[in-house]
Amino acid sequence: MIDKRCNLIGYVGKQCSMYISLNKNDINSSNIYFMRLTLLNFIKIGDLQIQNNTNSAVFTPNQKNFSSPGLPFCTDFEPKKGRIFQIRGYVPHQSGRFEFDIQDGPGVQPGNIQFHFSPRFDDSLSRDPVVVRNNRYFGSWWNEERHGGSPFRRGESFEVLILIDDSDYKVIQF
């Protein structure tokens, strides 16, 4: 179990709309990805503009609400088993890619990225859209996971849930 304070951080590259919240009780989707979890510090959101953010602890009514925060956006959170990040957004027609990074520290190029989730429409290794999952330790990227295709489409809205488990991140897209 991870018991250290963490932050949620957002970066923007292209114009897009997004809503982020922590914890959602009704999870129902078949698009689930898994990635190993070791240490969690920050989440980075690339190519998206945050509209609103809600942060709540598991099974408590306490919440932090943010309306149209500036970017990059950063807020504390406690990484516990059962914590869920809900991310809603819209992929612009011209978007090439965007990403969510759970990382050590708030920097743009941190040494460790515990979870890299990158929907790509312009990937040179795939003629079809793909969701790349990976992590980076001590400045070196590990092996990418690319199987499963991509449920994301240009010009469409999306919703993603990222669940923190004991040893995994579970990502559900619907």
Automatic annotation (TrEMBL):
Residues 71-174 form the Galectin domain. Keywords: Lectin. SMART domains: Gal-bind_lectin (SM00908), GLECT (SM00276). Pfam families: Gal-bind_lectin (PF00337). InterPro entries: ConA-like_dom_sf, Galectin-like, Galectin_CRD. Gene3D superfamilies: 2.60.120.200. This is Galectin. GO terms for molecular function: carbohydrate binding; galactoside binding.
